[in-house]
Amino acid sequence: MKTYTIAVLPGDGIGPEVMAEAEKVLAKIAGKYDLSFNFTPADVGGIAIDRHGKALPEDTVETCRKADAVLFGSVGGPKWETLPPEEQPERGALLPLRKIFGLFANLRPAIVFPQLKEASPLKAGIIGEGFDVMVVRELTGGIYFGQPKGNDGVKGFDTMVYTADEIERIGRLAFETARRRNSRLVSIDKANVLSTMVLWRQVITKLGAEYPDVSLSHMYVDNAAMQLVRNPRQFDVMLCGNMFGDILSDEASMITGSLGMLPSASLAEASEGELPFGLYEPSGGSAPDIAGQGIANPIAQILSAGMLLKYSLGLDKAYDDIYAAIEGVLDEGYRTADIMSPGMKQIGTGEMGDRIAGKI
Ligand code: NAD
Ligand code: IPM
Ligand code: MN
């Protein structure tokens, strides 16, 4: 029997609550495909600060290194917001993890399930027959990581830097992604103001010549934010730098009904003929406002587990099973609070996970 090791890092807030549901679903997948998942848990974020004095203990990094892929919950919360910024869960754990493992490509698929059209805040006419966009976000460069950065109480500064190589690397992945979808790529930038983004547009334009079958256009980020609510269906793949992708993916998620629906894959470069190492996590955060109440939507975490199976383990059919199971449960009218609409049956985190697992 094939065994895969999955590092499980639930983190803080709703992280552990939704992670438990993803594990239930993976256990069912293992049974169905005669596989075995060896889940190796590790502390990360606030809980790691509380237990080990730092947000990213070496043991946690080692656990990830030994695994075939990482399933991550979310980190952060009010309890740790008074610590020095570099020690907080986000900057002390999540960003270093992305850097250590070279997770340069962040895929965030925002899809309106037909059953959830009513949960979208946009009018039915705007959603039309559905919305399915893939945000491809560069994840290890840009203003998140550029040096210098600091805050001396009088001056706070961050530096936005991209090299042509970094832009080309994420650009290629976006073109390839578009090729496997509807062959439309919109590159998002702010080339009218930022030098980094002038280079971004130059590199992507040049790369476009290698992908004549993909229709490439460029859009300023402010316009893109507006176009996403005006006519979201114009987009197929949206390519963004680190910060713009962070912002636009939250916006895209809400079109699907809730941030609790948006999974993500953060991928490293793959060797020729191999699948990439990846960290898989919901795009949303630890949701302190609803943590501990058993009402969080586990679907983003479950879909993230599905993406792990597909992108790092090559188990495409298992991903399809998870997707279909979610659709099945939504078809039966079950909803967590965030995607609730009149006439539907409201259930909690655990029941949603049980019902999805039950359909595998
Ligand atoms: P958030 O994403 O945690 O929450 C924003 C809103 O979306 C909240 O109202 C929340 O209840 C809702 N929401 C998010 N996920 C949901 C789910 N699964 N089901 C139902 N509702 C859901 O963003 P925030 O409030 O700005 O940040 C809270 C903390 O999370 C901060 O410490 C932030 O830095 C951290 N954060 C972590 C990650 C991560 O670990 N990847 C991502 C984003 C934010
Ligand atoms: C995300 C989060 C992170 C980011 C934070 C928590 C560092 O918002 O994964 O979208 O900005 O990348
Ligand atoms: Mn974000």
UniProtKB/TrEMBL annotation:
Cofactor(s) in the UniProt record: Mg(2+); Mn(2+)
Cofactor descriptive note: Binds 1 Mg(2+) or Mn(2+) ion per subunit.
Pathway per the UniProt entry: Amino-acid biosynthesis; L-leucine biosynthesis; L-leucine from 3-methyl-2-oxobutanoate: step 3/4
Keywords: Amino-acid biosynthesis, Branched-chain amino acid biosynthesis, Cytoplasm, Leucine biosynthesis, Magnesium, Manganese, Metal-binding, NAD, Oxidoreductase
Record's catalysed reaction(s): (2R,3S)-3-isopropylmalate + NAD(+) = 4-methyl-2-oxopentanoate + CO2 + NADH
Localization annotation: Cytoplasm
Binding site for Mg(2+): D222, D246, D250
Gene3D superfamilies reported in the protein's UniProt record: Isopropylmalate Dehydrogenase
Enzyme Commission identifier(s): 1.1.1.85
The UniProt record lists the keyword Metal-binding: yes
UniProt-annotated binding residues for NAD(+): 77-90, 285-297
Enzyme class: oxidoreductase
Domain of life of the source: Bacteria
Any GO MF annotation of the entry: 3-isopropylmalate dehydrogenase activity
InterPro entries attached to this UniProt entry: IsoCit/isopropylmalate_DH_CS (IPR019818), IsoPropMal-DH-like_dom (IPR024084), Isopropylmalate_DH (IPR004429)
Ligand binding (substrate): R98, R108, R137, D222
An example Gene Ontology CC term for this record: cytosol
Domain Isopropylmalate dehydrogenase-like span(s) in chain numbering: 5-356
Similarity-based family: Belongs to the isocitrate and isopropylmalate dehydrogenases family. LeuB type 1 subfamily.
Subunit structure: Homodimer.
HAMAP family: LeuB_type1
Protein name: 3-isopropylmalate dehydrogenase
